[in-house]
Design a protein that fits this description.
The complex is a heterodimer of chains A (294) and B (263).
Chain A lengths: L1 H25 L3 H22 L4 H24 L5 H22 L8 H6 L9 E3 L5 E4 H19 L1 H9 L1 H6 L4 H42 L3 H26 L3 H19 L5 H14 L1
Helix pairs in contact in A: 1-6, 1-9, 1-10, 2-3, 2-4, 2-9, 3-4, 3-9, 6-9, 9-10, 9-11, 10-11
Chain B lengths: L9 E10 L2 E11 L4 E5 L6 H8 L7 E6 L4 H4 L3 E4 L13 H6 L3 H4 L7 H13 L15 H15 L3 E4 L8 H16 L3 E5 L6 H4 L2 E6 L1 E7 H4 L2 H8 L2 H15 L8
Parallel strand pairs in B: 3-7, 3-8, 5-6, 6-7
Antiparallel strand pairs in B: 1-2, 1-4, 8-9
The chains are: A mainly alpha (294), B alpha/beta (263).
Chain lengths: 294, 263
């Protein structure tokens, strides 16, 4: 039962991350996802200190707000300050993350968060943290519900806003010309990324959530040239990553989050080598074919 | 020389645009007639693309205003189409020709709705107009420069607008595509649509356009091609550079070299 809980939670988190990651990598904003995932840390700690509990609704709000602030600061330093965009990402997120680290260490006694958990996540605890109703009924792991709700929100967001997200990603100038606000959809997408990162924080941690945001979409990108298929392949890869990652961790008796990210990387490597279109082998074959023709 | 018209389809008044305090466009004041095929010419950095972007509200104005069909842009967006430079997008994006062309219908589809069968039919019709039907399901990453430009034109056609702005549609395309595109533009103009094109090949101006706008940060000339496409005004637009250009042009013509790459 524990295995099912862990794999399901992992899959829900990975799917939400992967779907958003598809848009991020095509917008060439993969590292903004990285930045947000780190920068939400002070938001989590502050929300925790204010509300005094890990009741995740406040936490999602607090961290979501910081996530949007991060994107805003990155844009601000880049556009108004004339700083290169990668430099402004670097400055913004390390600074916010550092604030979070300080907050955790200062309020260590009051905050039931430890740095290891925040950085690397601990999905193995998912089955232990149960949601118990006021009448004593046990509904199952709390994280499972949170990641489920977040995934539903993300899927709704992508289905309803598909057209706008797709167009602002491919051709922002044309999108603005026909009256679709590119900055509105930019911030909506970034809010969605913040929300997802926060919800996946406890299970995979700040560093490895980036693997789930980027690796499955990057793999899917190599496997298809159709955007809708890319989204579906990402979903399949996310589930596969979560399941194989869990069993790898059990086999090695190691960190589950680490094993999941390793599997995500492994799938990417396989796609990179064996992809029928863009893979190394396919390319090499084509080269040989061309030379033999000449 | 600036020729103004009654009941203009586009009116630009005292338009100034600056990039980090340096003016790119300065006090541009002009009107354009309905149904004309307009070429916007000027040297590099003269603000040709900036003018179109400013009219489409894509960059902030330092001063001035723009009216299309006698109204602000927001009221008439559905009647206006914009074709960005093809280099402005990533052609490795996972999409087919049809996916891109149907984007032209997005404004009409409305928020939260999906394009319907009728929208795909309109897209297919536009694809046929630019003679890309056999490539409709092709991935855009596999297209040549000329084909990419045709896809952008098809997307604009699918919008079924009345006023079109095109940023360098002839840049980096093959001769056949250039001919096909100008054929479509002339046809659109004959149907009473107004087409405004950023252009950089002086040789073809008189052949392609019936109205010319000459820019060099300031507006140098705007009027019917036969009135304003004169040596004197071109000299003013291009400054000293034109003499070199025209000398080279004359030399080439005398020696019978082709002045364009034939690909």
């Amino acid at each position: 039962m524990d295995a099912i809980y862990i794999i399901t939670t992992g899959s829900l988190v990975a799917i939400a991350c992967g779907l958003l990651g598809c848009f991020l990598i095509l917008r060439k904003m993969a590292m903004v996802g990285d930045a947000i995932s780190h920068a939400v840390l002070p938001g989590i700690v502050l929300a925790f200190l204010i509300s005094g509990s890990r009741d995740s609704f406040t936490m999602l709000l607090g961290a979501g707000a910081i996530g949007v602030l991060t994107t805003f600061l990155i844009e601000f330093f880049h556009k108004k300050g004339g700083l290169q965009s990668d430099a402004s990402i670097g400055v913004t997120f390390t600074w916010l993350f550092a604030l979070g680290v300080i907050l955790i260490s200062v309020y260590a006694g009051e905050v039931d968060l430890d740095q290891d958990c925040v950085l690397y996540g601990e999905i193995a605890y998912v089955p232990l943290d149960l949601w118990i109703g006021s009448n004593g009924i046990i509904y199952g792991p709390r994280s499972l519900y949170i990641s489920g709700v977040v995934l539903v929100v993300i899927i709704l967001f992508i289905t309803l806003g598909y057209k706008e997200l797709h167009l602002t990603t491919f051709d922002p100038a044309f999108a603005s010309a026909i009256g679709i606000s590119t900055s509105l959809w930019h911030y909506l997408l970034m809010s969605a990324v913040s929300l997802t990162t926060v919800s996946s924080f406890e299970s995979v941690g700040a560093i490895l959530v980036v693997a789930l945001l980027i690796a499955p979409p990057a793999t899917a990108y190599l496997l298809t040239a159709n955007f809708k298929k890319m989204l579906w392949i990402t979903v399949a890869l996310s589930i596969l990553t979560s399941a194989t990652g869990y069993y790898l961790a059990v086999y090695l008796d190691g960190s589950i989050a680490g094993a999941m990210s390793t599997m995500a990387g492994l799938f990417f490597a396989l796609a990179f080598i064996f992809s029928p279109v863009d893979g190394l082998i396919a390319k090499r074959r084509r080269q040989l074919y061309e030379t033999s023709k000449n | 020389m600036i020729v103004n018209v009654e009941n203009p389809i586009l009116e630009v008044h005292d338009l100034t645009v600056t990039y980090s305090r340096k003016p790119v466009l300065w006090g541009v004041d002009m009107t354009l007639p309905k149904g004309s095929l307009v070429g916007v010419i000027g040297p590099n950095g003269a603000g040709k693309s900036t003018l179109i972007k400013a009219i489409m509200g894509l960059i902030p104005l330092s001063s001035g205003w723009v009216e299309l069909f006698g109204s602000p842009l927001d009221d008439v967006r559905k009647k206006v189409s914009y074709v960005p430079q093809k280099e402005s997008v990533d052609w490795d994006f996972p999409a087919s020709v049809r996916d891109v062309v149907v984007m032209g219908r997005y404004a009409k589809v409305g928020l939260f709705k999906r394009p319907r069968k009728a929208d795909y039919e309109a897209a297919d019709y536009a694809i046929a107009q630019v003679k890309m039907t056999e490539f409709a399901n092709r991935q855009i990453s596999q297209l040549s420069g000329g084909q990419q430009q045709r896809v952008f034109l098809a997307r604009a056609l699918a919008q079924n607008a009345d006023l079109y702005f095109m940023d360098e549609p002839f840049a980096g395309v093959d001769a056949a595509t250039e001919k096909a595109i100008i054929g479509i533009l002339k046809q659109m103009s004959a149907q009473g649509k107004t087409v405004i094109v950023v252009h950089h090949d002086l040789q073809t101006v008189t052949k392609y356009f019936d109205w010319v706008v000459q820019l060099n940060t300031r507006l140098v000339a705007s009027g019917p091609v036969e009135e304003v496409f004169t040596q004197e005004l071109l000299q003013e637009t291009y400054g000293g550079k034109l003499t070199i250009l025209s000398d080279v042009g004359n030399l080439l013509r005398k020696q019978g070299f082709p002045t364009r790459d034939v690909t």
